[in-house]
Amino acid sequence: MNPDRMIREKELHTIDGLKHTQRHEYIKRGIYPPPMKLSDAGRARAWSGRELSAWQAWRRARRDGTAPEGSTWRDFLTVDGNDCQTVAEDEEAWRASLATVHKAAGPWQRKCRAALACEPGKRN
Q1: pLDDT of the chain along its 124 residues, tens only?
Q2: Radius of gyration of the chain measured on its C-alpha atoms
Q3: Which residues, in sequence order, are bridge partners of residue 45?
Q4: Rounded to an integer, what distance in angstroms lies between the CA atom of residue 49 and that of residue 79?
Q5: Assessment of whether the complete model's pTM goes beyond 0.90
Q6: Is residue 64 within 8 Å of residue 81, measured between CB atoms?
Q7: Which residues pair with 82 in a beta bridge?
Q8: Which residues are 8's β-sheet partners?
Q9: Contact, 51 vs 23, CB < 8 A?
């Protein structure tokens, strides 16, 4: 399954094998990924392929007895083969290094502002 793909509810049954009511009960209990709204105004929603893959990996690990006690599907989330905690730490280090460049280098300010999503008049 493509991790970047958004999956609508009509397709979910072929992926998870669950019925609508069971899926929503699992969402309430926190053992199934919740959907994302696709727009602020509309009712359309979809599930992340990455989160569904994590849910499937968690279910397999529970079946095989290899899932840590008390784990959830969120513990099985990965980004490009790395667990999400490592990715978050790497991104934080990357942003810190850009902030240093942003403070020190004049010609690079526009590029750093874009990368850090700074406001144009704001100085760090």
Answers
A1: 677 789 999 999 999 999 999 999 999 999 999 999 888 887 889 999 989 999 999 999 999 999 889 888 888 887 555 555 444 455 556 566 555 544 544 444 444 444 444 444 444 4
A2: 20
A3: 37
A4: 12
A5: no
A6: no
A7: 79
A8: none
A9: no
Residue type, 83: D
Name the region of 100 (left: φ>0; alpha: ψ -120 to 50; beta: rest).
alpha
In degrees, to the nearest 5, what angle opens at C-alpha 82 toward C-alphas 78 and 16?
Answer: 20
3-state secondary structure the chain: CCCCCEECHHHHHHHHCCCHHHHHHHHHHCCCCCCEECCCCCCCEEEEHHHHHHHHHHHHHHHHCCCCCCCCHHHHCEECCEEHHHHHHHHHHHHHHHHHHHHHCCCCHHHHHHHHCCCCCCCC
Residue 45 makes CB contacts below 8 A (sequence gap 6+) with 8, 9, 35, 36, 37, 38
- As a whole number of angstroms, the distance between CA 23 and CA 13 comes to 9
Contact 45, 88 (CB under 8 A): no
